[in-house]
Design goal:
By secondary structure, the protein is of the alpha/beta class. The protein is built from nine helices and 13 strands. Strands 5-4-1-8-9-10-11-12-13 form a nine-stranded mixed β-sheet, with helices on both faces. It has a four-stranded mixed β-sheet with strand order 3-2-6-7. The two termini are 17 Å apart. InterPro entries: Carboh/pur_kinase_PfkB_CS, PfkB_dom, Ribokinase-like.
């Protein structure tokens, strides 16, 4: 089942600070903050919501079409996509822009400080959801504001079920905007912090949001996740082999969730697939440096949950 992934492609510059932010930020001085962190480790990785989700879906044998606008500096990233067999048909180059860029500093408690330049991502609205590609589901992930609105509208108008994943883009929308997205979406996926923002901005509880869609999925980091569907489904976490970098874990989770849904899995199974994929990602640095086959994933699923992945 083909899924359209509307989101971004970005270069992620990831830096690791071998201390804790809280030990260096003085609460009574935040109005005149001037802090420098020495980062002995630095990596530049391929990232962005569309790229990360497409990469993880490919690992799981899923069929994802990424749709995004990128800059003139996308050449190396496109070679990476081609190398891994990821379809780039709907990746449009804006020659006057750079790709989106994220500069992420992570401390020893997995807290992150991020600076983000949207670049070509702001042109996302210049692309439209194709209706002649056999697309059966989609996701509207963080992207340019106008692009997220247009793609949600186009999915809904075409009758294509889609997941709304506001992520880091959530501050761009007010309560009315977010209610509009919720009313259009089939599923909504957020982390615990974002769920709190959704509640605050819309005045709706998690249960009420869950009643407006087929499911509200809330990830809880190391505590697993909760899926508010016909009933509340609590998904246990999977202990990772190591904790190296949380960047891209949410995208890995969503990729596995979409794959499970496309395969007709129930919420418990799809959630467990997502939980496992997130734990696999966190054990490697960067959003797209982990790899495995579907058979290896199925074995880890059996080891983690004691049941076979049918």
């Amino acid at each position: 089942m083909t899924a359209l992934i509307c989101g971004s492609f970005a270069y992620d510059t990831i830096m690791t600070f071998d201390g804790k932010f809280k030990d260096h930020i003085m609460p009574d001085r935040v109005h005149m903050l001037n802090v420098a962190f020495l980062v002995p480790e630095l990596q530049r990785n391929f990232g962005g919501t569309a790229g990360n989700i497409a990469y993880n879906m490919k690992l799981l044998g899923g069929d994802g079409l990424a749709m995004a606008t990128v800059g003139a500096d996308f050449g190396g990233y496109r070679e990476w996509l081609n190398k891994h067999g990821i379809n780039d048909k709907y990746v449009k180059t804006i020659d006057s822009e750079y790709c989106a860029q994220a500069y992420i500093t992570t401390d020893m408690e997995d807290n992150q400080i991020t600076a983000f330049h949207p670049g070509a991502m702001n042109h996302a609205h210049t692309q439209s959801v194709p209706t002649d590609e056999g697309i059966k589901m989609g996701i509207v992930a963080p992207d340019g504001r106008d692009g997220m609105i247009e793609h949600a509208r186009q999915f809904a108008d075409a009758g294509i079920p889609f997941m709304f994943d506001p992520g880091q883009g959530l501050p761009m929308f007010d309560g009315n905007d977010l209610e509009w997205f919720i009313d259009k979406a089939t599923w909504v996926a957020v982390n615990d912090y974002e769920a709190g923002m959704l509640e605050e901005k819309t005045g709706l509880s998690r249960q009420q949001i869950g009643e407006k869609v087929e499911a509200l999925i809330v990830t809880l980091g190391g505590e697993g996740s909760v899926i508010y569907a016909d009933e509340e489904v609590h998904v246990e976490p999977v202990k990772p082999a190591a904790i190296k970098d949380p960047t891209g874990c949410g995208d890995a989770y969503r990729a596995a969730l979409l794959t499970g849904l496309s395969e007709g899995k129930d919420w418990k199974t799809a959630g467990r697939m997502a939980s496992l994929m997130g734990s696999i990602k966190v054990a490697s640095t960067g959003p797209q440096n982990h790899s495995l086959t579907r058979d290896e994933f199925a074995k880890q699923f059996k080891d983690a949950f004691g049941v076979a992945l049918d």
